[in-house]
């Protein structure tokens, strides 16, 4: 039994009908890659999540990706797919969006047009339009930190002009509606809905800190930080256990599915 599998024992011993599993996609189920479009879940991840969904009250993938994007990468019956940090979810095969997110769609579109123009010619800064959010990626730049320092003021000014907010992540800046919620709000709503008493949360980035906070007061909680040289220190400090890779996470999930 690995150290990670041993750390999951309190969750494994909890009443399954009052327990939930929440995990990010990129960095937790899939290795981080230069182009987000190339990301693929670890082999067996979807099968394992489907098995967990048959055992536990709720299993959810909560990601910054759109819900539609998640549905192409996670094919697991019974698993909730929550996108854009909680602004979208796949329900009965249809993408349902939050009212607050929808109300800012025009502002997002206008900010996207301005960003596209402003970033033209900046090598390594890639704009991704997500409908209710925007993402500027830097991972493919030869010097990601330098490009982010150059571009960040531009992104923040354009976002502020449109009444939007900017959230930093691993080699990424996300532009989103203010007050639209975060991963913590998404997890907290599900915990309340099902009256959960135990939760396992897996994350690797700044946005996952809010998800960690959402289960802070549960009787049983296990928070897994997938660590790298890009991991925020606060995430690692607040975790009950640290994993080294998505492969390690999926292996541990597989052990839970067998218990």
* First-last Cα distance: 13 Å
Label the structural class.
alpha/beta
**Average pLDDT value?**
95
Name of the CATH class of the largest domain: Alpha Beta
Instruction: Give me the side-by-side strand order of the main sheet.
Output: 5-4-3-2-1-10-11-12
Oligomer: single chain
Q: pLDDT below 50 for ≥5 consecutive residues: which ranges?
A: none
Count of individual domains = 2
Q: Roughly what percent helix?
A: 40-55%
Largest sheet: 8 strands, mixed
Radius of gyration: 18 Å
Which fold does the CATH topology of the largest domain refer to? Rossmann fold
- Return the CATH architecture of the largest domain: 3-Layer(aba) Sandwich
Give me the CATH superfamily of the largest domain.
Answer: HAD superfamily/HAD-like
Could you tell me the number of beta strands?
12
- Fraction in beta strands: 15-25%
Instruction: Give the CA-based shape.
Output: globular
- Given the structure, what is the number of helices? 11
Order of helices and strands: HHEHEHEEEHHEEHEEHEHEHEH
Write a structural description.
The protein has 259 residues and is of the alpha/beta class. It has 2 domains: 173 residues, Rossmann fold; 76 residues, Trehalose-6-phosphate phosphatase related protein, domain 2 (Alpha-Beta Plaits). Helices cover 40% and strands 22% of the residues. It has 11 helices and 12 strands. An 8-stranded mixed beta sheet has the order 5-4-3-2-1-10-11-12, with helices on both faces. A 4-stranded antiparallel beta sheet has the order 6-7-9-8, covered by helices on one side. Helix 4 links the parallel strand 2 and strand 3. Helix 3 runs parallel beside helix 11 and helix 6 packs across helix 7. It is globular, with a radius of gyration of 18 Å. The model has no long low-confidence stretch (mean pLDDT 95).
């Amino acid at each position: 039994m690995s150290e990670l599998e041993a750390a999951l024992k309190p969750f494994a011993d909890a009443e399954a009908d009052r327990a939930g599993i929440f995990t990010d996609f990129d960095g937790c189920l899939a290795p981080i890659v230069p182009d987000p479009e190339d990301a693929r879940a670890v082999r067996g991840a979807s099968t394992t999540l489907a098995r967990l969904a048959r055992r536990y009250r709720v299993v959810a993938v909560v990601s910054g990706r759109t819900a539609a994007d998640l549905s192409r990468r996670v094919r697991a019956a019974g698993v909730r797919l929550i996108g854009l940090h909680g602004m979208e979810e796949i329900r009965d095969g249809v993408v349902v969006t939050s009212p607050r997110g929808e109300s800012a769609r025009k502002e997002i579109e206008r900010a996207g047009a301005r960003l596209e123009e402003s970033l033209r010619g900046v090598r390594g800064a890639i704009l991704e339009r997500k409908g209710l959010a925007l993402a500027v990626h830097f991972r493919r730049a030869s010097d990601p930190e330098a490009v982010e320092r150059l571009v960040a003021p531009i992104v923040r000014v354009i976002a502020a002009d449109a009444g939007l907010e900017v959230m930093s992540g691993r080699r990424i800046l996300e532009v989103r509606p203010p007050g639209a919620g975060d991963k913590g709000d998404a997890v907290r709503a599900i915990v309340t809905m099902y009256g959960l008493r135990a939760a396992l949360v897996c994350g690797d980035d700044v946005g996952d800190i809010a998800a960690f906070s959402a289960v802070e007061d549960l009787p049983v909680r296990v928070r897994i930080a997938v660590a790298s040289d890009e991991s925020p220190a606060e995430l690692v400090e607040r975790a009950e256990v640290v994993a080294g890779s998505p492969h390690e996470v999926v292996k541990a999930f597989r052990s839970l599915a067998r218990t």
